[in-house]
Amino acid sequence: MVRYLEIFLFIFVFGLSTFAQQNDNIPNGEDSIRQTVSQNRRLLLNRFYATRLDSVSLLLDSIDRHHPEQTLLWTAERLLLYYWIERYDAIDSIVRNFDKFDEKNTVHPPQEQMVWNVLSYYSQENYDTLVAWIDDTKCSDKVFDFRIHLLTILLHNDLDDSSSIVREIRLLREQYFLQEEPATPEAPPVTSKQVEPQQTNDDTWRAGLVVGMGTVSTSGKIAKYLSVKSSLSFDWNVNHERLYFSLLMQVSFARLKRDLGVWEAGKLAFVSNIGLSTGYSVIDSRFFRMSPFIGMVVSDCSPSEQQIENDNALRDAGIRWGITSMYGLDTDIKLYNMFHFLESKDFLASLNIRLNYIPSMFDNVNNRYSGNMFFVSFGIRIDISTR
């Protein structure tokens, strides 16, 4: 009986000790949060190393949105990272509301300083680039001086002496913001998840050229005479804010399906359109512009110069001077606001998609050739900056 009791006590004590060891291996809530923060900081750092700044911005927003209770970045780290992803409004807001900003972010920098060390090193190495990006926002001289001054403070202080950085930022706030009247009392600080960069290279006045190629289709009686496949277009335009005016020159390449007098079927034909139009941008965001337009166009269908040289009788052949209206939609994808290397001060590049409809193109010439043409062209718009 005593032996059975000894065996039972041994098993009980062994099980109890094993359970205690397993519990020791389970991280508590604070350790779990610390591990999650550390992992997220490494993710941010890896994407920054790969110069995937758009990806850094998206990841930072995602973490802030899904883990608002976690302190991912110390304030100085967040400010320096905002310079790289060009969130200048967030920088201004943090400093303007510095006393209200979360105290745990402000006073206690993280134990692991790899993020700060990397950001600080690369920022010092690329200081001129960061200054150029600030200059590209075309902010006022006062705001420009503030942002440069703050960047200098962040790059010339030691993270170990966090109180020095905090003190200098507060002095900077007093110098640049305390003299301003607050727009609204008790305004909450703006964080990364509330701010989207709004800087743009768009000008009030722009002038430019669109070169495009595309497909053409015809309908009505004219489709019985012409087989139209492709087109080349040039569009000179002048823009004032959302309003624009353009001069369109478009040439379509076709072949005759039927004889047009002495002009025999199967021959190459050129359909030319010269038009004036005006449009208005109903959508004009940072990366996207959509502008319906309306205008007048003069159309012509004629043989090539080579055909006329070979057969003088073709000099008066074709369908001449159809006059009608045109309607369409211009869509621009603003590449210059999407990619830093395209942010030129002189030329602004966009991807252009144009839909153009010309009804009753030759009705005023001869009802036999009445019909419509529809163009879809893809091209590049180059606007000349007037800044």
Structure overview:
- It is a single chain.
- Strand 1 (205-220) and strand 2 form a beta hairpin.
- The protein is elongated.
- The chain folds into two domains: 29-194, no CATH class; 205-385, Porin.
- Helix 4 (75-84) runs parallel beside helix 7 (114-125).
- Strands 1-2-3-4-6-7-8-9 form an eight-stranded antiparallel beta barrel.
- The protein has helices spanning 2-25, 29-49, 53-66, 75-84, 88-96, 103-107, 114-125, 127-136, 141-155, 162-176, 305-310, and strands at 205-220, 226-240, 243-256, 268-280, 283-284, 288-303, 319-333, 347-358, 371-385.
- It is of the alpha+beta class and 387 residues long.
List key phrases describing it.
elongated, 2 domains, Porin, eight-stranded antiparallel β-barrel, alpha+beta, 387 residues, 11 helices
